Amino acid sequence: MRIPRELEKLMFFGIFLCLDAFLYVFTLLPLRVFLALFRLLTLPCYGLRDRRLLQPAQVCDILKGVILVICYFMMHYVDYSMMYHLIRGQSVIKLYIIYNMLEVADRLFSSFGQDILDALYWTATEPKERKRAHIGVIPHFFMAVLYVFLHAILIMVQATTLNVAFNSHNKSLLTIMMSNNFVEIKGSVFKKFEKNNLFQMSNSDIKERFTNYVLLLIVCLRNMEQFSWNPDHLWVLFPDVCMVIASEIAVDIVKHAFITKFNDITADVYSEYRASLAFDLVSSRQKNAYTDYSDSVARRMGFIPLPLAVLLIRVVTSSIKVQGILSYACVILFYFGLISLKVLNSIVLLGKSCQYVKEAKMEEKLFNPPPTSMPGKPSSKSQSKCKSSQGLSMEENLSASVTSQPVHQKENVIPLLVTSSSDQFLTTPDGDEKDITQENSELKHRSSKKDLLEIDRFTICGNRID
Length: 466
Hints:
Transmembrane anterior posterior transformation protein 1 homolog isoform X1
């Protein structure tokens, strides 16, 4: 009976983490792009004292902004009304199958898309003296634009299917789609779960719930536009929205309650999960952080805000017409309101995160982070074994860790696979690795807090998909 309260605490904290990363795209990212472009234009005034024209973070900001603008204009060629009537003409059972396929495709796209974006950020910011062993920035950029565009279309089809379910007369499609949530219980309750696997599933549930909230917002915007923003129609949609949210919460509670019961996991594990998410936030706010906060959330939860932001901007601009000086003044005030919400949300999250980190006694990890938390840098034990063969300087490791996607060399693959506790469920040792895994078997009974910290949060891989 403690599971619902502890789970909802974790979900509440995680949803606000996703909201913070999502609001970053609309509020601080345009300002950062403007500052980066301003530095680029005023560079002759400063002279070429630095080797870099822009800092790595500014290069990533410009790339994100350009991808957003290009995909927004590409979305104008996708007709939402035609898609709506095309989906509405299908049978109920066909739409049910389509919605299931879209959910699976969304998880696969999220997993593959973060790797594409990481590869783009790395190739754009890597040191120029390094020997390039990959394709250039331009091919990666076109791949990233294509990914964001296709993922935005996929989410649009999801929102359109949900809109058709809301507007169906007998609500049979909406009932079937809600019953689809209960299929998750059958697929996950009777499987064996370790604490790390349950942590990954909890992150996936947080991302799924936040995405559903944004989809419901898009559905309400489209319906209100069709009814000329009549407030009475909002109360017609309200029961269906509450029904979808209640079914999602009920399914998560039942699923987690029985998983913890069958696998003999206590309810206190959710406070450890929450402390681990808080540790991510606090460590990414440090001055010498190795990754941006929004990228850290994307890797941990599989939540990528760019496609969702493109779709929401497209729907809002097509639903709301801005005409006249007063309308533009309202838009500017709304933008400042979003910035205020983002800043206040960040302040509250940072304060709560510091509190959770102190309660979990993880403060020393902030100043002495575990070796696996630094991308492209092996553990100290592995480093002493491979120092003579690798010959990598500390400067090169630190320059590689500035960007969000490390390049794992062949010598570093085995130590990283061994030291990451989450990968022990995915890899099977053979040959020389057996000795290393026997040494690491003594670490099996460590506290779960330390295990959670050693989950590799700089790569997103197949274990994000339950």
